[in-house]
Amino acid sequence: MSLRPADLRTDRVYARATLLDQGMHRRQLASAAMTRVFPGWWMRADAQPALSTLAEVFQHSIRPGAVISHETAAELFGFPLPRAMTRQGGAPLHCRGPESRGRASGGLVVVHRPAAAPTIRLDGITMSHPLVALQELAPRLAPVDLVVCLDALAADQNGTRERMRIPQIEQFLGTMSGRGVPALRRALPAVRERSWSPMETRLRLLLRSRGYPEPELNLKVCDPVTGTVYFIDLAYPDERIAIEYDGDEHRTNRQRWRDDLQRSAALQRMGWSLHRLTMADYLRPGEVLAGLDHALREARRNGR
To answer: Could you give all domains of the chain from N- to C-terminal order, each with its CATH number?
Structure first.
């Protein structure tokens, strides 16, 4: 019995020789039901193997000794990259070396020159150290995006898979040199360990760029009526002003929507002025900032 594309798993990639040995006809291999992921390696056209699976196959079977690098390493670590730098956004797999093989580039893979830089092993894959991966990307990242990534690396919750405290980052950067390092050092003073999402970082940087004081991040408050503990995304506690970012999940997830209503009621009961922002507000913040200005003036007028 011949092997058909429908018989294959959707989370795996297969060597061409293996598929032919197991009975897949060359016509099926060349059909629209199959797609080539690397030279000599194929998968079902509807398959979605994890990026770690692709990196492992490439490193172990196609270029042994290569170091997974650049955006591929950064995505595997969990850095919140711009979509164009992710596999979902069409980014190829990036690696360095090995020494015996030259630099190459194509639609599927980009192979960079080997570099004497620290590496780390994660889930059986040898990759550029997280800060080295950011150094490799820094020339193509906007300053805000670079702070977003460094915040994720330093975050005490919900950050990258490998965490570094800010003093550790500073110490590590002191040992680095080359292109991209100056941008990392310029971004470091803006990094905070209490930023738990990319949008919290972006909103904080937006407020600072417009002259607002530094907000507290993920401030813990307890509702005296119910005893429920809440964390405010960005807060001015002296003025009792809370700023929350609502992503799509806040709108589409029914339980999240109910939790938001409960949180809003609790904060208002405790005397907080609550300001909810969406992506549209972030992109055009004039109206929201005008409301924040008014709330700050009222708080100060009332002695807070």
So the answer is: 5-49 (no CATH), 52-189 (no CATH), 198-301 (3.40.960.10)
Among 142, 41, 45, 131, residue whose Cα is nearest residue 93: 41
Chain position carrying tokens 């650049």: 70
> What DSSP element (H or E) covers 37?
strand 34-38
Question: Tokens for 109?
Answer: 């893979």
Pick from 298, 297, 300, 239: which is nearest to 272 by CA?
Answer: 239
Q: Which residues contact 133 (CB under 8 A, 6 or more apart)?
A: 69, 70, 71, 73, 74, 77, 79, 127
pLDDT in the model for residue 258? 82
Give the residue-averaged pLDDT of 101-113: 70
CB atoms within 10 A of CB 55: 26
pLDDT band (50, 70, 90) for residue 251: low
Q: Tell me: pLDDT of 101 over 80.
A: no
Cα 95 from chain centroid (whole Å): 19
Helices (H), 188-238: 198-209
Supply the pLDDT for residue 298: 83
